[in-house]
Amino acid sequence: MSKTAFIPSIPATSEEDFDVSASSKLAGYRRFYGVLKVVRTTDGRVLFPFDGAPELGPYPTKLEATAAAQVYGEHIVASDLARPEM
Hints:
Oligomer: single chain
Structural class: alpha+beta
């Protein structure tokens, strides 16, 4: 028998209710991709990455790839605060 439990979705109320992790990875010569993970900490829901999520890149430098991931993460946080994904 499966022991799955229902965890209700709890919308965030501020930017502090999110954990945003942005970094980059190298995929070939001078091809950097942003790596992003966004978690809503109120209920543990992973907002990014998701199935079919876009790739963040390629960018010519590691710094640009990380910055692009950070900006995209901030966009996801702002969007979820405006209209929570339940």
